[in-house]
Each structure stands twice: as structure tokens, then as C-alpha cells.
From TrEMBL:
Name the record gives this protein: Glycerophosphoryl diester phosphodiesterase
Gene Ontology BP annotations: lipid metabolic process
Coiled-coil features, chain-numbered ranges: none
Molecular function via GO: phosphoric diester hydrolase activity
Listed PROSITE patterns: GP_PDE
Record domain GP-PDE: where: 18-248, 255-501
Taxonomic source organism: Roseibium marinum
Amino acid sequence: MTQFGPDRTWIHDTHRPPLAIAHRGASAYAFDNTMRAFEVARELGADMWEVDVRLTADGVPVAFHDADLKAACGRDLRLSDVTAAVLADLTAAAGRSAPLFADIAALAARAGAGIYLDAKEGEAASRAVDILLDNRIARAIVGANTPDYCAELLAAGCPYPVSILVGLGGDPFEIADRCGAQIVHPCWERAGDRPDALLDDAFFAKARERGLPVVTWHEERTDVVEALVKMPVLGICSDQPEMVARYKSAGLRRPEIVCHRGACGIAPENTKSAARAAWAAGFDSVEIDVRETSDGELVVHHDPLLERTTSGAGELAEKTLAEIAALDAGSWFDPFFNDEPVPLLAEIVDMAFGAGGKLYVELKQADPVRTVQAVLKRMAPEDVFFWSANVDWLHLIRETFPQAMLMARPEDFDSLDTCLAAFEADIIEFNRRNANAAGFETVRRAGRKVMVAYMGSDTAEMERLLGLQPDLVNVNEPFQVARLLAGKEDNGSMDVRRIRA
């Protein structure tokens, strides 16, 4: 074993926000405990990754929650009865490979992420801890599900702090006193609609008396997460770790982030999952593309053809809504999203309203008056803006809906002045080739906002464009932009990205 010794003082740091702990990876967007789940957790900016660890028949630590393979592979086998090689074959065939814990630890070391280790047995814990030490993981917690297991870990000299997980009905402080736990972790996600109410002043007083940091259950309800973030907790587990440290533009001199086709590196573009991920992370707007079916229904889809992002074929405009509704718009991206539907425009609008988010609506092939009516019936005009390559449609929208916000692009006009005058657009979108300080100043003198569209991932180019201080940025890589603005950019982004035009 290496002589590397982790520092435990970080668990008592009360001068920072709660850590975002990705529960079994970002398991809202990938099969839990898979390499992709942890790669997505990295992209979402999770501080720590919770990993379930078990041993195979040949003693190899793997990331796997259940004791058997029924749920993951449909096989009536115990994980401890199969070798690592057999497990790899079985899970790969089921479309959700179980990674070696060593591979996860190596990824965490490269990403600078911590590990919350939930080892299901003592030997699995000791072998996993050795791997953490070999990878010089400084920030780790070892979780125990029972007081006896907690005491066993401590008696064995676990070099990392040990937490005790306590279910409903248990007194976390009595149990911690009995077993010597160094962190308490109440697993109270099923305690009604507002389990955060159980973490009252008396609870934290007891925690302070004992010097015990608190980690909470996995939580994905917006109101509960918002309450927990304001509490003196060490960390918050979540299937959606982006909810814990949400991006904020208002009042911070940061640009509004517009997620092109949603958070399209996390979930399939132009779907409810991609929109949900964007707003959950605190990003301001989701860009969507609107088309019309043959029977006049408004749906969200980019291409005129169905082949690239759905299980269908042919022109969308030639299909009825019933035919579109039967398509799978997610499995092309990842098997986790099998059966993700092509959303109705009304569904995305309802999501935006419910999330308090904004929309950028691009009209691809849809009646402009009906489209704008459908959106503004639900959303305030200041929370949505519209654009189309069809300039006549934009003039029609301006005439019919003077309160609607419109966007224009300088590249579509002879000059910037012509662009500003055409239909009095509220937002002018530059790109990487024509963005410049002088143009931005001209737009702002006219009382309009500046947006920059950049669909690449080159860090230097992003920094250059952000240095021009646009009001909005329209991007495929919102999490990379957020990291840059927070000064946290690492040396790589997730390697499971789908390339988009």
C-alpha cells in the first residue's frame, strides 16, 4: 500500500457550500454505477461520486449495487459467484457494463473528484480503500449501513472518515455515539414531501455538540434541494448533482446561458430530458426547434428528416402526431434513454413554466402565428424569444405580437444597422467569426441585448468570446462555459459526447 495519507480536516470546513455528491454517478441520466454515469457526473461538476462496491468471485472490486444480477441482467446469479470477466460479459450484453472500481478511481483522480464509498462488505471496503490511496484520492468517505460495520471499519484503521447511514425511525446521534461514526448520513428521502423539515435547529445542535458533519439522502425535488443547500450540511447526495450547485447569472455579471437544444451533451437533444437537465442546473434558457406534423400539431425536433435522432424515417411534416408519438427519440444517444418521446411544444412550454425557466424558440417549419400564440398563452413575453431563418415570418410575428421578443443575426443582413432596423429585434446573435467589441457596443447603444452562438468546445475560443462580455451565450457545452466562468475548467470534458451539427 502506498504511504499517501489523506487529510480529514476538509469534512469540518464550514466556510463553503454543501458538496454535490452524485448518487451512483449521475444516475438520472445514465444507468447507475456505470462508467458513463460517472463521466456525466464529472461533466455536471459533482464534487464527489457515490459508488457502490462489491467483490466478484475472483476478488475484484466492481461498481454494483445489488447482490444479484436479476435487475441488471435478468440472470438468477449472485454477483459474488461470477468472476469479473463473466460479469463484464453479462452486463455488456445487457447494455450497462459494470466497471472496475479501479477505473472509476482513476477517472476521479483525473477529474479531481472525491469518492463516497458504499462498500457492501468489509473486504470490498479494504480493497477499494487501497485503490483510493493508490490513486491519491484525498477526499473520500467510507459509508457503513450498520453500526457493527461502522465499528469494524474504524477498528481496522480506515484512513478515510466513516459515515453511518441511518434509515427512518433511527436516531442518528445515538447510533453514531454507539459505533463511533465520524459523519452522520440520514437516509430520509421517503419521509414525506419535505424531509428537510426533520433537519431542524435541534438536529444541528446535536450534530455540533458531537462534531459530526451531516450528509443527506439522495434528493431530486427542487424545493427540498433548495432548502438543504441553505443548511450547514457537508454534502447532498443526488441523482442530479447539478441541482446542488446551480448556475446563477442574475446579479453576478455573468451571461445568461442558453442551452442549444437543451443540455444536449447530457441527454438527447430537443427532448424533455435535455430541457429538464438544463433548468435543473440553473441555466437560464433552453433553445428548441419547432416543426408541424401533417395533422397540424406542433412538436419539438430539429431535422426535417426523422432518421438521425429517432427510430423513424422520412419527413416529419408528412407524419401524423400519432405516428410521431410512437417513435423513440432517445436510444440513438444512449440506451438509458430508450423510448424517450419526441415532445409536443406544449409539453416543453409547460416544463419551462413549471421550472421558472426561459425558452429560445426557433421556428423550423411551423405556422408562426400558431406557434407564438401557443407559447405566449403560457409564458410571459420576457421569458421567451423567437427566431426563424424565414425573415418574413419574423416580420409577421412582430406585426401580430408586438410584445414578443425576437432575435436577429447580422450575417443575414447587409449591415449591422440593417439588422437592427429590420424588425426591431430585441436580441442580436453574433457568432465566433463576427463577434467584436465594436459591434456589441453598437447593439447596446440601440438598447438591444447581445448574444454569441458558439457550438464548439475549444476552451481558448470560449474564453475569447466570454471576454467580450455578451449578455447571453448560446452553446452546446453549457457546463464547460459555467466552469470557465467559475474559474474551474479542468483539462478535459466528458468523452461520451455526441457530435451535433
